[in-house]
Amino acid sequence: MKVEVDVPKCVASGQCVLVAPDIFDQRDEDGMVVLLAEEPGPEQYDAVRESAMVCPAAAIHLVES
Questions:
Q1: I need a surface site. Which of 3, 8, 38, 52 has the fewest CB within 10 A?
Q2: Segment 7-40, tens digit of pLDDT
Q3: Dihedral angle at the C-alpha atoms of 50, 45, 64, 12, nearest 10 degrees?
Q4: pLDDT band per the 50, 70, 90 thresholds, residue 3
Q5: SS3 57
Q6: Angle at 35 between CA 29 and CA 41, to 5 degrees
Q7: What CA–CA distances, in Å, run from 12 to 20, 43, 59?
Q8: How far is CA 2 from CA 29, 30, 39, 47, in A?
Q9: Whether CATH 3.30.70.20 fits 2-63
Q10: Residue 65: what pLDDT?
C-alpha cells in the first residue's frame, strides 16, 4: 500500500492523526497534514484505511498493491 495526501485539499481536522499517528502528523503553523510514512507496514493498513475513510476533505488517497 502507498499513501498519498492532497495537502491543499486538507482542512486540518486532525482525524488522520488521531487514527494513525505513526503515519500522519500535522504542521504546527496551520494544522495541515504531514505524511510520515508513504508506505506503511501491513500492521498499519487498517488504521490507514480508516484514516482515509474519516478524512472530511477526502485528502488521503491509497494505492493498494
A1: 8
A2: 999 999 999 999 999 999 999 999 999 999 999 9
A3: 40
A4: very high
A5: coil
A6: 150
A7: 15, 25, 10
A8: 26, 25, 5, 13
A9: yes
A10: 80
Residue with cell 494544522: 31
Distance from C-alpha of 8 to C-alpha of 44, rounded to nearest angstrom: 25
Place of cell 500500500: 1
- Cell numbers found for residue 31: 494544522
Whole-angstrom Cα distance, residue 39 to residue 23? 9
The confidence band for 49, taking pLDDT boundaries of 50, 70 and 90, is: very high
Residue 15's region, left for phi above 0, alpha for psi from -120 to 50, else beta, is alpha
